[in-house]
Amino acid sequence: MMGATVGGGLAHVSGLSNLIQPAVAEELAARQKRVLIFFLAGGVSQLESWDPKPNTDTGGPFRAIPTSVPGIHISELLPLTAQQMHRLNLVRGVNTAEDDHGKGAVFMETGRRDSPAQRYPALGSVVSRLVAPPTMALPGYVHIQPGGGGVNKADAAFLGPKFASITIGNGQPPAYLLRPGDLTPAADQQRNDVRLKANQRFTARRRTAETEAYSASYEQARQLVERADVFDVTKEPPQDQERYGSHDFGRHCLLARRLLEQGLTCVKVTHTNYDSHSENFDFHIEQLGEFDRPFATLIDDLAQRGMLDSTLVVVMSEFGRTPNINHLFGRDHWSKAWSVALAGCGMQKGAVIGKTNDNGTAVVDREVDARNLFHTYLRALGVDSTANYPGLNRPIPIGDPAGDAIQELLA
Amino acid sequence: MTDEQPAPPVPDPAQVRQIKEFKHNRPLFACRIDRTGRFAFTGAQDNLVVRWELDGDKKLEFAGQESWVRGMAFQPAGDLLASGDYAGRLCAWRWAADAAAPPVYSVAAHQGWLRAVAASPDGATFATCGNDRFVRLWNAADGKLLRELAGHESHVYNVAFHPGGGQLASCDLKGVVKHWDLSSGAAVRQLDGSVLWKYDAGFHADIGGARGMAFSGDGAWLACAGVTEVTNAFAGVGNAAVALFDWVTGERKQVLRPKDNFQGVAWSVAFHPAGFIAVVAGGQHGGALWFFRLDQPNPFFAFKLPADARDLALHPDGLRLAIAHSDGALRLYDISPKPAA
Q1: d(C-alpha B33, C-alpha A338), whole Å
Q2: What is the DSSP letter of A184?
Q3: How do residues B99-112 score in pLDDT, each as one tens digit?
Q4: B301 and B13 Cβ atoms separated by less than 8 Å
Q5: Pairing state between β A141-145 and A266-272
Q6: Distance CA A239, CA A235 (A)
Q7: φ/ψ bin of B41: left (φ > 0), alpha (ψ from -120 to 50), beta (otherwise)
Q8: What is the pTM of this model?
Q9: A50, A94, A120, A309: most buried, per Cβ within 10 A?
Q10: Distance between CA atoms of B280 and B259, rounded to whole angstroms?
Q11: Which of B246, B204, B211, B215 is nearest to B228 (CA)?
Q12: Residue B58: other Cβ atoms inside 10 A
């Protein structure tokens, strides 16, 4: 089952960089696959973003603008993103048939429909388990979001808490990351040595999955403390902080770039909120106005740094929004015909897969759902998504066997 | 026998009733009535300006806008109607034309949404405002830019000329009302309309702005219509309200609102020459028309509308008013006393 993973032998790149020549480090960096997920919480409107229908009864007030790919138009709310279209792909035929926020998010992130019988791991946790180098000091899956931080064990499901997401609340480093000022490094090391001895004695007789996870988490946390500066976005050049913008989402995107550059395998950035049942158009001006520049800047930076070819980028929501405009100028939940944007990791560039009808109410060509997308993500990362997870005591397929990858996207 | 004409009927808002309906195929967004009372013009969730003959059934469509039309204003004594759309385009039309014709001029007036248009009392100037945070003044005759008024720090939702001339008011998303002196182009003071604004921390977004804005005929009062006490911006949970300012002191004197804390947005406000204020709103439970007195925070009469109201226009006879609805209907209402049975 080792064939299901890639890059397992790669040590952390920046850790190696002192030992190996820059050219080799670059090659290793290029081979290490990474994932960057943008989750537009609440459900971004496909009509105000990736699949505009101007001058129709459902189209809303915005115009469609040309992009860097002749023939592809997106909403005028994404002018800078439009200039990155030659690096992006649009999947315009998504039909997930799930209009509930929670269930929609589960379907999109796990590639499986939400079920009380079995919870499956989210993409970030799967990547942390199957793609992240085992020797990585940093967590495999970091989630940057507004609000609070912590660890979301539910993300990892049966993979275990080691592969759960660590949430960076509002871009702030994990709690207690910095060593207290009155604790010297020597005293800290001495303390850790005592802990290790006690731990070894305990696990020699009572070793369980829980003690393994505890030890792994503690060790990861200890190594994380050594790399505390990884989470400090103020270490980025001032001109970059200006390019990304001073608002929270700009800082979060710059932090995502920093984490990916430091070798972290999966970063999810949540941008909130798009659940515009009322005044959809005003709110999409505000939210996508904030999204456009940092997103386009990050795509451009990844490309310029040679990282986009090894980094899978996904822009998803739990669903799209209704073509029908309600009496409050809002759009409601709509999962029957919406869009996801993808980029990088050797996939096609500037492709549009799938099509909706003239006013966006239905998919008319190449309909896909979250299962197809999940297989596609993993295939792009070099993972055989039809295989079973390694190391479990029962066979569980990585991707839902009812779906398959969108081959047209895979180069 | 004398030569005296009978006194015109005094409006009685409590007797309001619908007398006519004009149906468009898209939700309406704006309405105005010309000074002769012959035509109503509407903007809708399409790119058209539509003329309706109030005493007949003729409908004429004027094409040339590039997005939804929200802002409209007639020259008080001229032959032009100015309209502005969400593509930022300002157009001027000969409103009494026999047939639909291209705009007299069409100007790229704002980057992004053009939210409102107003005409100066002398008819020489149109004012526009929009999401680019500017207020701009245009020569009404030819659409040439006269002046740009900068200073708002968020989307500018509305603009209104003071009836005395020489002054202009504008209101932005955050309820900042600026008083502009038109001879110098300077913002001379700022009024606090923040009662009509909320940053919804749960959704990370602002909601607010003057959806409707009007001066009283004597210039003593300024009214800004919108939404207050928002508890859930994205579900439209807030209360329709009108902030009423004493223009001389700049003090907010009242927040006009219905007794039932109507959930929704007040989209338009108008001062009736008889001394009362008409307000229309739309929200979770449909539309409403309210009539307020200046010195009372609650309406003296409330009337339920068949659909959400988006705009209101008084007829020059003072006895009728037109309301643009979300169901595509422009409805004409009579507020004259009902004839005795």
Answers
A1: 41
A2: -
A3: 999 999 999 999 99
A4: yes
A5: parallel
A6: 11
A7: beta
A8: 0.91
A9: A94
A10: 14
A11: B211
A12: 10
Give the pair of three-digit tokens for residue A272.
């909130």
d(CA B281, CA B262): 9
- Is the pLDDT reported for residue A177 higher than 80? no
DSSP 8-state class, residue A388: B
Tokens of A258: 């920093």
Closest chain B residue to the Cα of A41, Cα to Cα: B203
DSSP A231: G
Residue at token pair 């009214």: B223
Place of tokens 């702005």: B209
How close A126 comes to chain B (CA, Å)?
A: 29
DSSP state of B314: E
Q: Which two tokens stand for residue B58?
A: 């003729």
Query: Which residues of A lie inside 8 Å of B (Cβ-Cβ)?
Result: 42, 55, 57, 61-63, 146, 272-273, 275-279, 281-283, 285-287, 325, 327-328, 330
Closest Cβ–Cβ partner in B112, B236, B307 for A330: B236
Task: Say if the Cβ atoms of A287 and B206 lie within 8 Å.
Answer: no
Chain A / chain B CB contacts < 8 angstroms: 70
- Residue A240 tokens read as 């970059």
pLDDT at site A22: 53
Q: At what angle do helices A101-110 and A123-130 cross, to 10 degrees?
A: 20
Can you tell me the distance from the alpha carbon of B206 to that of A69, in angstroms, rounded to the nearest whole number? 34
pLDDT digits (tens, 9 = 90+) for A367-392: 999 999 999 999 999 999 999 999 99
Q: What is the ipTM of this complex?
A: 0.95
Position A29 scores a pLDDT of 56
Q: What are phi and psi of B200, to 5 degrees?
A: -85, 100
Distances (CA, A) of A34 to A61, A267, A400, B76, B273: 37, 8, 22, 64, 68
